[in-house]
Write a structure and sequence with these properties.
This protein has 3 domains: 118 residues, Orthogonal Bundle (Butyryl-Coa Dehydrogenase, subunit A, domain 1); 117 residues, Butyryl-CoA Dehydrogenase, subunit A, domain 2 (Beta Barrel), CATH 2.40.110.10; 128 residues, Butyryl-CoA Dehydrogenase, subunit A, domain 3. The protein has 12 helices and 8 strands. Helix 4 runs antiparallel to helix 5, helix 6 packs across helix 9 and helix 9 packs across helix 11. The protein binds flavin-adenine dinucleotide (FAD). The site of flavin-adenine dinucleotide has 20 residues, from strand 1, strand 3 and helix 12.
Length: 413
């Protein structure tokens, strides 16, 4: 068989026919992409991913030797467009495929790629991230969870928090401290850990919008094989940086490893503002029409920004840290949109919250959760820091703990 890559338009036609034959059509009576994930969705999405894998349409941009298809982002974009009328395993996109799998492809050992990367692409395994800790997520290098080498194993103690979808995952990429005498960035290691283990106590965290996608985990002598170390011991910061690159790229909307796109209904961030204006009888109001036009312009800008940065990073014109610009826009633009929607919906968005459903309730929920966009995947302030220091090469922020052995760094209790 020839190794030549199939032309995108031929691939599109083949994908269109396969999708029609194999994937369930979106049901107009079903709500998709809601803030609460039903347990059955995880079973369904694993099955849908297995279907894509069996049909040769999973992990399109991952290499063939790890279960992918070795295709290009243009093939992935065509597939996503064709997949819009169908149910897709969207819950597996972030963090499992777009973030953790991307990192494993670049930094994992051959055995790790064969097991975890292939497992994620084939729908057998779901991955999540154990990075943030209660002492702070922005200062990631200041983390306190420790791993002690013991023969062929590591023994892990500590706590992680804000782990998206951990309860539904099988394994996590866990950043831990392995050297307390090295400065904070140089004593870390990335280790793949099982999520469900007798030595790990996992709680689901209920949010103000009723969702419970976040988890917190407490490790008491969790033992994992030393072969689960990703990269080299004490070089976890390099591995973590790669993972964070994929996080910014995926959260910012520019990942080649994310497949399909969420239908907008039930998701206020993707909700049509025109429909909302009509719903509340303000579609003829000139001020509201101006706001609607403004949000559309923001969408166009965002789309072009993602395109420009993705192309710039691929060509080497921009450094990998330029992904922080996409990440920042992904927080600022949806937040501005939520504010516009709230202005249009007015009190109705609040009064419909407890019982109501449909657009107005979605707006109310989006207002409650608007701040999440500027924290997930690293905060907006940290994105600005990275853009100024690592893209524009402005002077670095002062850090009292740089080059100090971590054991000696002063910490709050
Ligand atoms: C939707 C969502 C999904 C997430 N998923 C995961 C996940 O799967 N796994 C995981 O490990 N974590 C996850 N997180 C946690 C996320 O990474 C952290 O919330 C984030 O890194 C910020 O950390 P923090 O919440 O501890 O806030 P802090 O670090 O305490 O920051 C508080 C505030 O101080 C500001 N600040 C802190 N330091 C500086 C500085 N040097 N300069 C300027 N401002 C600063 C921050 O910008 C922020 O506004 C998720 C969070 C969200 C909202």
């Amino acid at each position: 068989m020839s190794d030549q890559i199939e032309a995108v338009e031929d691939f599109r036609l083949r994908a269109r026919a396969w999708l029609a034959e194999n994937m369930p059509k979106l049901d107009p009576d079903k709500e998709y992409n809601t803030n609460r994930v039903a347990d059955r969705e995880w079973v369904e999405h694993r099955e849908l991913q297995k279907k894509l894998f069996a049909g040769g349409f999973a992990g399109l941009c991952f290499p063939k030797e790890y279960g992918g298809q070795g295709l290009t982002p243009a093939h992935q974009a065509a597939f996503t467009e064709e997949s819009l009328p169908y149910e897709m395993p969207l819950r597996l996109n972030i963090p499992s495929l777009g973030i953790c799998s991307g990192m494993l492809l670049d930094m994992g050992s051959e055995e790790q790629k064969q097991k975890y990367l292939r497992g994620a692409i084939s729908g057998e395994i779901i991955l999540c991230q154990f990075l943030s800790e209660p002492s702070g997520g922005s200062d990631l290098a200041g983390l306190l969870t420790r791993a002690q080498r013991d023969g062929d194993t590591y023994v892990i103690n500590g706590q992680k928090t804000w782990s998206t979808f951990a309860y539904a995952a099988d394994y996590a990429t866990c950043l831990v401290r392995t050297d307390w005498d090295a400065p904070k960035h140089r004593g870390l290691s990335m280790i793949i850990v099982p999520v469900h283990d007798a030595a790990t106590h996992l709680n689901r965290v209920r949010m103000v919008d009723g969702s419970d996608e976040f988890c917190e985990e407490f490790f008491t002598d969790l033992v994992v094989p030393a072969e689960n170390l990703v990269g080299t011991e004490n070089d976890g910061w390099t591995v973590g940086q790669r993972q964070l690159f994929y996080e910014r790229q995926a959260v910012g909307g520019g990942s080649p490893y994310v497949s399909g796109r969420a239908p907008s209904r039930g998701n206020a961030a993707g909700l049509s503002i025109e429909s909302l204006a009509r719903e509340v009888g303000k579609d003829q109001d000139p001020a509201v029409r101006e706001l609607v036009g403004w949000t559309h312009a923001q969408d166009v800008v965002n789309h072009q920004l993602i395109k420009r940065i993705t192309v710039g990073m691929a060509s080497g014109e921009y450094p990998a840290m330029a992904s922080s610009m996409m990440r920042l826009a992904h927080a600022e633009i949806p937040q501005a949109k939520v504010d516009v929607m709230f202005e249009i919906a007015g009190d109705a968005a609040v009064t419909s919250l407890p019982e109501g459903d449909g657009y107005l309730r979605s707006v109310g929920v989006a207002v409650l959760m608007r701040q999440g966009a500027s924290l997930g995947g690293g905060s907006s302030e940290m994105s600005r820091n990275m853009i100024s220091e690592r893209v524009l090469m402005m002077p670095r922020e002062y850090a009292a703990d740089r080059d100090v052995p971590f054991r000696e760094v002063r910490r709050g209790r």
